[in-house]
Amino acid sequence: MALTRFLIRRILSGILVLWIVSLAAFLLFFLRPRDTVARELGGKTATAPILALITKTLGLSQPIYVQYWQYLYRLVHGNLGYSYVDGEAVKTILAQDLPRTASLVVGGALLWLIVGLSVGILSAVRARSFFDRFATFGVLTGISMPTFVLGQLLLLAIFLPLNEHGFTWITDSYQGLSQGVVPWLGYYLLPWITLATVQAAIYTRLSRGSLVDTLGEDYIRTARAKGLTERRVIYRHGLRAALTPVVSQLGIDIGGFLGGVVVTEQVFNMGGIGQDSVAAISQGNLPVILGFVLIAALFVVVANIIVDMVYAVLDPRVRIS
User: Fold this and answer.
1) Cα dist from 267 to 97, 151, 244, whole Å
2) Alpha-carbon distance 248 to 252, whole Å?
3) Which residue segments constitute the domains of the chain, with CATH numbers given?
4) For residue range 57-86, what is the model confidence (pLDDT) as tens digits?
5) Taking the model in full, what pTM does it have?
């Protein structure tokens, strides 16, 4: 019951956050003269008939509270708006972009978790050893490497030489899973490495520091005094508590990245949410900007609700907080 109540509180707070974001986004863009709003909704190239259609369709001549009610009604029914620049519904654009961004984020997250946690745990277990010092050097290098520089280096050092020698399975043109697993892996391999390098360095330091602190706790010394093996002490008693800050960070990262991995998508020309968000800003494509803002907020809220559930399982004290 405690876990159920905890989950209900988190879901209700998440709904409240989404409502606040929707209200803030609406007021930011719509609390202005209707002609200004219509021009921004229609984009920089909107003609007079399009502006008149926007004003009529969205009821921009109505009082602001009526406009917001209609706006909220459309959102609840899954209508994120219509892009007059692209000639498509925003949810159609999102449906094209989301698989690319989600594949990048999920694959990158698996890679940075495997590398970051493995190196971090080994560094904590072998603190102040040569491996620990070497890992620290690698972490500093990874954190200091700008994503756009690393992406360009991978293209120059791996993609171009392999393609020149006939290894065309690593490609720079989008390949979905419907076209086969190997082409899909070949397309995402370098973006995954680019995204995971900096994050793996962060998770290495986070997991190492957390586990080192945990291994100094009284209950760990008690477990050792009872004669438990060091492996059992570390992996059964220490690691579970040490993972809680890692899980929290993971929720923040995945939720934020699903809203658009701007630099990585730009470097590899992936056409995901991040790259199209930048294009929408440059075009003045307000419906796409609004839709992507709301979806990004949804990803962050859902990711953090999932993290809160995992956190409550790892640390039961959280359920009554």
Assistant:
1) 16, 6, 33
2) 7
3) 2-90 (no CATH), 92-320 (1.10.3720.10)
4) 777 778 888 888 888 888 888 888 888 777
5) 0.79
